Amino acid sequence: MIIGSSSSVTQILKEEDATAYHSEIGAIAGAAIGENDILLSGDAMDVRAGWSPMKIDRLQFALTLLSALGCWLMAGVFFAFSIFVMKALARIQPEQGIAAMQSINAAVPSSLFGMTFLVTAAACAVLAVFSLFRWHKPGAGYLLAGSLLYLAGAILMTMIFNVPKNNVLASVDPASGEGARLWVGYVSSWTAWNHVRTAASIAATASLTYGVRA
Question: For the chain, which residues make up each domain, given as ranges?
């Protein structure tokens, strides 16, 4: 009886251990599946919306390429103004410098520069939202950072600082004493804020480019 009882107890213990082991394995597998579902939730929503992950990846790449190229072009234009254009205008007579800058500012909105400036902003805005919805993807943080750098450092700075200064300059007579006095402060402050736009656009280009490679 004693031997029989010991065998029964041993058998029961083995069965309990097996049950506990299988329960633990099931819990681990369930947790892994749940985590995988979270990681794939963005792609799952894309599929339910009629977009395959491959199509979404291609769209994101196109947006990133457009944004990076636009930021690169804007950085080049801003860089040129910071390095030599404003310096050249400051060296000539105030009347001539004011007239030249007024002509440049009047031509910008309808030029290829103006279109590129705004199209790049739109692409960066869409890419920023895109990156948030696909945050689990590699490089999403760099794409978001690059987009925000351009939107804040180039677009916002232009609207808050450079455009108001351009509007004031447009209202003065290039040959007047008021225009000459305004021109001195305009050149220094406008160029300083243009440095910010240049740096932001360069940083945005670098971040977007690195985000593609990540």
Answer: 2-39, 51-213
